[in-house]
Amino acid sequence: SRQFGFLKLNSPEQSKKKALVVLRAIKYLERMLVQAQAEKQRRKADSTKINPDELKDDDEDKGISIDPKTYCKLGHFHLLLEDYSKAMSAYQKFYSLKGDYWKDASFLYGQGLVYYHFNAFQWAVKAFQQVLWVEPGFPRACEVHLRLGLMLKVHADFDAALKHLTLALIDATTPASFSKLEIKFHIAHLYEVQGKYRLAKEHYEALLKEKTLPSHLKADICRQLGWMYHVVDCTILGITRQQKQAIAIHCLQKSIEAEPKSGQSLYLLGRCLAASGKVHDAFIAYR
Length: 287
Known about the structure:
- One of its GO terms (biological process) is regulation of gene expression.
- It is a single chain.
- The chain is mostly helical.
- Among the domains are: 15-30 and 67-99, no CATH class; 198-286, Serine Threonine Protein Phosphatase 5, Tetratricopeptide repeat, CATH 1.25.40.10.
- The chain has 15 helices and no strands.
- It has helices at 15-50, 57-61, 69-80, 84-97, 105-117, 121-134, 141-154, 158-170, 180-193, 197-208, 215-231, 234-237, 241-258, 263-275, 279-286.
- It is elongated and about 90 Å long.
- Mean pLDDT is 84; it is low at 57-61.
């Protein structure tokens, strides 16, 4: 599960590894489970024929028990293939068979990722928090903090969200699926959704000064800034009423320059232009 988000098995360049390692491993584990279940059913049938009154589950299963960890491994492989439904099914089987499942940080992490995919944030938060409790030095701690921060932001638990996003930002030892610049963007956006507009503005503008800022992130930052200038009172942002719409339009135009096919930025630019009385230009942006 720790390789999820880093090992892209569904990408063309990983096709050989996908076929040779993961798919073969899944087939092997599934065959093992099927054979064990078939043997269990056969023994049950034989025991019933001999003496139904003496049938005991312990005798049936003797020598054919399956290690619950097999289901956990199967869940990890399905997760790597992004087959979330099968991953969840395997993880749930491990959960039901393993009494001390909560000690397995890799299981909790994998289960949390599946819950995250299905937007079951309440359960994902619980799973990720357990990961950090069981293994504070978990090799994917940065990713755990990142996803906790994003989910807690959605749940409006802003203080906790900021704590986890900050921990993800300062973690220099474990990898994450987001770059440090992207994490900084989400911290700025956190301030924005809290209504701390001036602080958000400062963080967005600081990001725009980064020399290695990728175009997609520049587009997102300029779009957020542009719309913020459009809707937030000018006194809060420390600008005049005359500057307000001009800066909003400029930021949205910069967003479109960075990402020309962004329908959202084009739509917001149209809104700003229409509000400024530039109806013809607004129509072009909408179109």
